[in-house]
Amino acid sequence: MLNELNTALRTFKNQSGEILAIYADDSCSCDSPMEWGTLFHYYTWQSGYYSMQENDFRSPEDWINYELESDDAFDKIQEKCLEKGKGVVEFANALCDALDKVGIIAKPILCYDHSDIKYYLGNHIDYWDGSVVGFVWQEKEVLRNEFKVKRLSKKCCEQAFSMVEARLETYTSWANGYVYGYRLFNKLGEEVDSCWGFIGNIYDELLSDIKSYVDTDDDKFIEFEPENFKQAV
């Protein structure tokens, strides 16, 4: 078991002599978080990457023109933004304003791609490594039905987009390969439980999520280093 523990990213023990080892899930056995069922649509057109969710449009221009029912809506909005000296994020927000008028709530999906990649909502991108990669959107009628309201208040929209931000954070972790699993060994060194496909940062709340899945009667684990294995059991 010592060799197996040496490949673990973190190891823990409890008073019962059980060892909990956390590993990178190199097989990335879990599906994309965008396949779990989402309230919003996530359409992206990022060079070298698949769209977060499948769509039938070759470009954001095609999609915008389709939703606005005009062959040149995208170009006209772009021209106005260029005349006013607006940047790429302001242009994306102008497209969202146009969508709002036809019953669609949308926000641009921003990206920072440098070593790791990060997807987020906001109004600013990095000059060198930032970009607008797509849009998160939904019809207002769908959101009104979801929240059981006749009018989408500011509070409803904030609640909805907080869900979007959480999903983008999870997707970011998944896209960067921050996927993990655990193996539980009894005091005899026998593997008695395992589970894979946990997404997130193993130094944050993900650790609590993993511990909540472990099949044990003693969940008071203390971290230790594998080289101290003899002292741990």
Tag the structure with descriptive keywords.
single chain, about 230 residues, alpha+beta, Thrombin, subunit H, 5-stranded antiparallel sheet, elongated, plasmid
Structure description:
There is one protein chain. The protein is an alpha+beta fold. It folds into two domains: 2-28 and 178-232, Thrombin, subunit H, CATH 2.40.10; 34-165, no CATH class. 34% of the residues lie in helices and 25% in strands. The chain has helices at 2-6, 60-67, 73-83, 88-100, 140-147, 154-175, 206-213, 229-232, and strands at 10-13, 19-24, 41-44, 104-114, 116-120, 130-139, 179-185, 191-199, 222-224. Strand 4 (104-114) and strand 5 (116-120) form a beta hairpin. Helix 3 (73-83) crosses helix 4. 24% of the residues are buried. The mean pLDDT is 93. Keywords: Plasmid.
What topology does this entry show?
Layout: H1 2-6, E1 10-13, E2 19-24, E3 41-44, H2 60-67, H3 73-83, H4 88-100, E4 104-114, E5 116-120, E6 130-139, H5 140-147, H6 154-175, E7 179-185, E8 191-199, H7 206-213, E9 222-224, H8 229-232
Antiparallel strand pairs: 1-2, 1-9, 2-7, 3-6, 4-5, 4-6, 7-8
Helix pairs in contact: 3-4
Keywords: Plasmid
